Backbone:
């Protein structure tokens, strides 16, 4: 039977043998479907490269993303899309994996990690972005064909079609149906490992907050943070940032909130005179500088940033010290991170600061009673900065709390030996967990005479923009993402009253 004799009349085929659309009003695409889906959209390719680097190379998303954006020459809009896709897929990885587990016919651990990353990207587009379902599927399949292969792309297409049959809320309802454990429910709904949910519930209670705030805290962790800027006092200006669309910071002076694209395009940022720094970090550094001391050395005060890398708080402290005629030593044990500290301090008069490379736990013996103000920004799990480090929630384990404890206590003990009578030590972490905050302070002060735990809340209020932060609980202070819009910074101020 010839085409002309088939039911319905002659077929409408082009010279390549493909049948044209039967509607006369529609135009046939110049690109065949197979060719369209073999191409990787540059923005999605950037997001994929970030996820692969995080999973395969243990990289940090915030370090990989800018370089990948530059490599693929993304414009502002595409860069924003890539950022939301990569960060969003990383934050929601736990929930997305739970959804995918219901749509894949094998354990996810048996999937090639590259395929799983592509599925996570496709799922985020379907569940949480303003991307039409057909575009999310077509572009993810195209990405897979370009960078993984035609075979895996068929699997990805089939799985994402299953994902697209329900909305995100419908999937959440399906995941928590029959689950009674509130920790498990919060873990699934807000994509946090269960141990972190438990840890944050404990942290809220320890710092005087109701445990019912846990969902608000987890939700705040999943919100994309606005870039915070600080102008180094006496050195930088926010005028350029404000002209580019920034708005004044709500918590701390000389700060701004920037949501107008790549902050690296600002000359003031490139020069180091204006720095990207969370408002919580700004507040705790300024609080140390604001404490009234019982004494002042004849030649000015000597300050110490004991755990200085990568140097953000050191730069702010050094700028304040320069205004007062004081000096700062920035200590960092790793040489490559010490180089970052020197770079961060580059905008400040070099006569004001110096960098020491060495173990901070030895500072007490090296400089007994040598400093008036000491910042101990101790290495911690980073549970208070999960919104800025989307991959960290999947890397940390509960055992990290135990492993970091001796280091935190050793650093604080050294600082207490290195501070002069009348001076002050600020113990700071970007974690609210009691094992890294109040327990460390209590253990370090137990049995020591001549030290007093100051009221940290009023000092924080004194460096805020005229508002009460209500961050104090007992003598210490705790900031929160869901209350203050900052990282969950902990602050304890310890004054040495006698030698």
Residues:
């Amino acid at each position: 039977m010839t085409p002309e004799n088939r039911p319905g009349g002659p077929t409408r085929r082009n010279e390549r043998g493909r049948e044209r659309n039967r509607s006369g009003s529609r135009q046939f695409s110049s690109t065949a479907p197979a060719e369209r889906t073999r191409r990787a959209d540059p923005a999605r390719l950037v997001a994929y490269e970030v996820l692969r680097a995080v999973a395969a190379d243990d990289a940090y998303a915030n370090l990989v993303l800018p370089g990948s954006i530059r490599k693929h020459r993304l414009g502002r809009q595409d860069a924003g899309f890539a950022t939301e896709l990569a960060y969003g897929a990383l934050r929601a990885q736990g929930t997305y994996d739970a959804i995918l587990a219901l749509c894949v016919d094998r354990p996810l651990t048996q999937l090639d990690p590259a395929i799983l990353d592509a599925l996570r990207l496709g799922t985020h587009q379907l569940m949480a972005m303003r991307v039409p379902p057909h575009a999310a599927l077509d572009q993810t399949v195209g990405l897979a064909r370009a960078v993984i292969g035609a075979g895996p792309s068929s699997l990805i297409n089939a799985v994402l079609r299953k994902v697209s049959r329900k909305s995100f809320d419908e999937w959440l309802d399906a995941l928590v149906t029959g689950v009674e454990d509130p920790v498990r429910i919060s873990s699934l709904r807000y994509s946090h490992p269960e141990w972190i949910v438990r840890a944050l519930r404990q942290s809220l209670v320890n710092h005087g907050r109701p445990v019912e705030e846990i969902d608000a805290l987890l939700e705040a962790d999943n919100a994309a943070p606005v870039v915070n800027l600080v102008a180094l006092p006496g050195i930088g200006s926010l005028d350029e940032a404000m002209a580019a669309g920034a708005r004044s910071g709500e918590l701390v002076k000389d700060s701004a909130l920037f949501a107008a694209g790549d902050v690296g395009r600002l000359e003031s940022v490139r020069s180091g005179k204006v720095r990207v720094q969370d408002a919580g970090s700004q507040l705790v550094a300024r609080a140390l500088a604001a404490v009234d001391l019982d004494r002042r050395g004849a030649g000015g005060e000597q300050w110490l940033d004991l755990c200085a890398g990568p140097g953000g708080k050191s730069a702010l402290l050094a700028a304040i010290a320069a205004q007062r005629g004081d000096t700062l030593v920035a200590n960092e044990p790793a040489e490559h991170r010490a180089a970052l500290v020197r770079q961060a301090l580059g905008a400040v008069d070099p006569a004001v600061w110096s960098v020491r490379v060495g173990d901070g736990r030895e500072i007490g013996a090296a400089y007994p009673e040598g400093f008036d103000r000491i910042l101990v920004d101790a290495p911690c799990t980073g549970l208070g900065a999960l919104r800025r480090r989307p991959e960290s929630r999947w890397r940390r384990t509960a055992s990290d709390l135990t492993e970091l404890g001796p280091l935190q206590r050793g650093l604080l003990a050294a600082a207490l030996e290195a501070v002069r009578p009348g001076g002050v030590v600020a113990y700071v972490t970007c974690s609210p967990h009691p094992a890294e905050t109040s327990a460390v302070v209590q253990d370090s002060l137990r049995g020591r005479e001549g030290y007093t735990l100051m009221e940290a809340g009023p000092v924080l209020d004194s460096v805020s923009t005229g508002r009460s932060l209500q961050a104090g609980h007992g003598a210490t202070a705790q900031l929160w993402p869901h209350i203050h819009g900052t990282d969950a910074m902990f602050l304890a101020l310890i004054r040495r009253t006698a030698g």
Remarks:
- The longest strand covers residues 419-429.
